[in-house]
Write the structure tokens for this entry.
Amino acid sequence: MKKRMLQEAVDALVDNGRRGRAVSGSHNHKLKSLSDLLRGKQGRFRQNLLGKRVDYSGRSVIIVGPTLKLHECGIPRKMALELFKPFVMNQLVVKGYAHNIKSAKRMAERVRPEVWDILENVIKDRPVLLNRAPTLHRLGIQAFKPVLIEGSAIRVHPLVCAAFNADFDGDQMAVHVPLSKEAVIEANQLMLSTNNMLSPSSGEPMVAPTLDIVLGCYYLTSSDDSAKGAGTTYGSLDEARLAFEMRLLNVRAPIKVRVPAELTVRTDASTLETQEPEEGTKFIDTTAGRILINNVIPDELGYWNFEMDKSGLKDLAAIAYTQIGNEEAAKLLDSVKDLGFHYASRSGTTIAISDIALSEDKTAIIQKADKRVALLEQQYLNGLITQQERYTNTVQIWTAANDELTKVIQNNLGNYGGIYWMAQSGAKGNIAQIKQMAGMRGLMSDPKGRIIDRPIKSNFREGLSVLEYFISTHGARKGLADTALRTADSGYLTRRLIDVSQEITIMDEDCSTEAGIWIQEDPDATLASAFADSLLTRYTAMPVADPATGEVILDGGELLDEESVEKINQSDISQVLVRSPLTCESRPGICRICYGVQLGTGELVMRGEAVGIIAAQSIGEPGTQLTMRTFHTGGIAGADITSGLPRVEELFEARAPKGEAVLSEIDGEVEVIEDSDGRIVRVTNREEYVDEYDISPNQKLLIGNNKQVAIGSTIATPKKTKKSADADNTAIEKADVIARVSGKLKIVGTKAKPESVTIAWEDEEQREYIVLATANVIVQTGDNVVAGQALTSGPKNPQQILRIQGREAVQQYLVDEVQSVYRSQGVKIHDKHIELIGGQMLNKVRIDHLGDTDLLPGELIDRRRYEDVNSEIIAQGGEPASASPVLLGITRASLNMESFLAAASFQETTRVLTESSMNGQVDHLRGLKENVIIGRLIPARLDQSEEGREKLGLPGPSDVEALGKKSFLLLEQ
């Protein structure tokens, strides 16, 4: 009895609640055991080892700082003094204002006037880091040069808000101070906001004008024929500018200006009016406003002569970044920002409810729809149509009416004053919102996501009735609830992605593999740009030739930049073999060439870059924008489509999807059979084989042409001849010819003088698939299918694709499916990020036969380790093991990682730790998490290669390494 009580007490101490009831203290509160100290978000791993509190940080509300430069942020004086107190105290002693640290501290606390001068000096070359929670991707924390300001709020440059996803409605930001020399170097070189102007997920500009700036620039570059000075002509750009400054010319008046003939004029962002550089001058049609904006655009980008809306300004940012570098681009964007703000104020754009002009046609459109719906109602009551048909048709009628009304509004947009300006320029709002203000609110969905067949016929200008308001609260409240749930789901997905990919860093220069993946143009794709986007920033794995002429356009191992992709687009090339992280052979990590160009910088990726983390963040960050719900097709069972975030999760977890398609396992011909039990799809594969027999002139054929032959029967026997004097009479000619197989005999030559005979036979393979009554069969009798083709509609199961078509097919399927979800929401992500995650999911193989290795059957083992073990055995002349590829979901892949520290810090901490201690596992500390846990520097550092040290501005080998070596020498002595 005592022993049992002792056992139970020890069990409760080690892991309370694992066996029997949990031991509870006062107030029925479960006692915290040793295992609980490690477990979960509040456990030792996640609370203390992976995330620590930092010294020297502050947080405050942010406000806009329109006068700041792109690399600056405004820090309140009081906050800056507290953050930099140790440095200020040090300087007070050095400069002789104070005798010791204690009096220096007293001076700083009493805030003497000389303290401010010293603070100004201290912060001159010390950047600070600004961070806004939630940090969904690496641009959520950036470095800035601090500028001291009055007040208590942090000031942020308006153009970096997009990267932080910040606005000024009460958001807060945290400030951190990098202390060590290395930290300051990294903040200055890698994290400064001007070095992070492109999105790491797609390579598009992150820092581009938005909102007011767009409105101001659109106003500035648009033209108005009735403005003062319209139609006048000027002898030069300067003359026109002078006329504007003398108030003789309105900023929007269309004018003619004489310019040098060699000036390149852009009529939109992509087209340059190219012509031979000629002597003399030419006239261009422009406005004073366009001259003003081109005054800040560098000459090498040309003269931008069109209405600059949001997309035009985004293109300007992208082109500036690639052609003049980030520092110049930052200056340009700052000037554009100032112009935009100034002219947004000068334009006097306002909106009022009276700006919304009600359409005359609205009543007619709604009455027409009402009549058609009344007719349907009557047909339903007369029993001519079902409830479902009435519902579907009603929804269709109202959708059509809504679309018609939207078109009417779109044609009259010009009458809407400020609202039109904002929507047209891309500053704020879109046609769908204007439709709700001027047309009708339209159809709403109920809490289940089913569309309510009574539309809201009023608009916000007229006001909604009580019933209409009540109906529209459904959708609004569901939207808010969805957003809250989606944020948590998306965060958890990001965390699993980070865990599965955190160990992937760039390790080698070039693994020199000849393998790659085929990027194919999808003929049915709605977006033509998808093919080009997938090719950009990669290297070719083999030469690319024009199929029409056979001319080699690109060599193998060439970078696919904008120019090369343009060449490919102009020829009829529909597929290119490119290097990819999926086929990279370097270990551990991947090589620079297989990864290609880093999208965030536009340069070849550096050694030591944590590309796994970047991939996970790029996929996780837009997760909150994806839709949550399964679309309900109006109550039709079995036709619900999983999309949005749940679909992405289903793919990365490699789960069997709902209503999955039946796949054919073999190539062959389809036969669809309907019988009382349901439908069967039969696929038959017929292969014809031929066996050949030589017949010599001395042999006599016994069987006629096209006759059936049984296996083992005699086809020919030797002719009876007089004994020949020839000694060459071989034994073969004396023997009978026996059929090795059964089949149909064909004679080559004539029966009298046959040269040879062949026996043809067919081998037939059949597979039958029972199809559910609800499933939709998408093939017909007589169709030819290939292995892996879907026979019924629905999503494919990735595990089945792997079994039938193999590794490459399932990789391609994952990339295509994940991309289709993101593209449908208008989110751009490069394929290589999804490929990195896919590579981690397919990283393991399951051992089938051991051969002479010491592996275990059924063991899950790293693919590269399996190849190493086999090559060793083959070198010794043994029999290698055989294995089949396995597709693991990201959670399972994370728990099956090489590193037990990383796996323990992810999920199921106690199980991972007990199993790895029983197996005596060794952690080689290759990934990021395991190094953070034991407090070492992470292996993803740029100072490990020459280029990296150059980028950081470090002399010789890394300072960190030098320090490490110094301490080793001391230990040895």
